[in-house]
Design brief:
single chain; mainly beta; four-stranded antiparallel β-sheet; 59% strand; globular
Length: 378
Amino acid sequence: MKYFFAILIITFCLSLEGQTTFNKRYHLDHPAVILTSLHVTDSCYYSTGIIADSIPPYNTGLLFSKFDLSGQPLFINTLTHTQKTYEVWRPKIKSTSDEEFVVAGYSINYQLGRQEAFLLKLNAFGDTISSNTFLSPYFPNQDFIRTIGFHSFNGGYLLGGNVANDVSNNGFVLYAKNDSVLWKKVYGSNSYSDPVYKISSKLKKIIIGGKQDRRCWLFQIDSLGNKEWEYRTPFSAYYGPAYDMVLEEDGSIIVSSKVGEDYSGQIRYDACVFKLDSNRNKVWETVFDEGLTSTVYHFSNIMESNDKGYILAGQVGDTTFLPGEYIRRGLIAKVSNQGEKIWYRPYEIIPTGAGRHEVFDMKPTPDGGILLCGEARD
């Protein structure tokens, strides 16, 4: 079966003031395209994403694009290689100035027979200024490496994700500065899959979010990568990763995730958000049990709203269609700063029984709205 990928960008307003809103799909002259990350300015929007070929081996490449404030494409640039993929599924684009950007991801290098994490510096037109690659701490015995989290810190960059040894997948974080790796650490155990999903910092505190087996996992590291504390959700429930988080001035952490139950051997989830105080005590948790429990129901993004609440975005699966049909809708919701549900909006751009929609990134806009990007597939 042939699948068609489309691009989705949405803006919507959070106030009653007049704002430009739009809802667009883009093909950008490629058979398969997804926008995965956004950078917002007063005059335009930048985005990175993934393109894929329509013939085997379906190699993926990097997409860099610029849009005006009404969502019209101004230009696109791509980075591809016949012997190498470029994967930027989760790491978010960083701006170093008006003229330069930094992008992180991972590659499958067929020419060298290995996998690599990478850090690219791009100019404002998406041309490569410099490129650095990083290998798994277990290389050459194991080369598997996936970059998921990405964060700028103290003049350098923290990359995180998961690497594989002979027993399991573990989380890793490395710190690169001035084209050199200053340190590289592996976290987790040899019994579980422990990927790192999110890296954040505030007041010089670095917080890492991930998953350890069936538990949502958070820990703090110092500037050398040494672990200072860690938190796991109770083993009595099935939690997803700490996909994203907001760090508050008082040391509290608001985490977007998912929580589920075992249904005859299959874990089905509801999207959730919870708050920890500065001592990692759970203050509140809000579960969106809207009757759409599925394996893919989660909040992968969270941001603070201008009224001190929280906007959440992700994906929800819906199995209420005819037998054999299964749709994945995008998901946007809002809670108050006390965790009270304010609104909840699944969205579906391609109305079929087998569509796939997901929000990959969202950013506030200067006029008080929100820009979102992701995938709409039929």
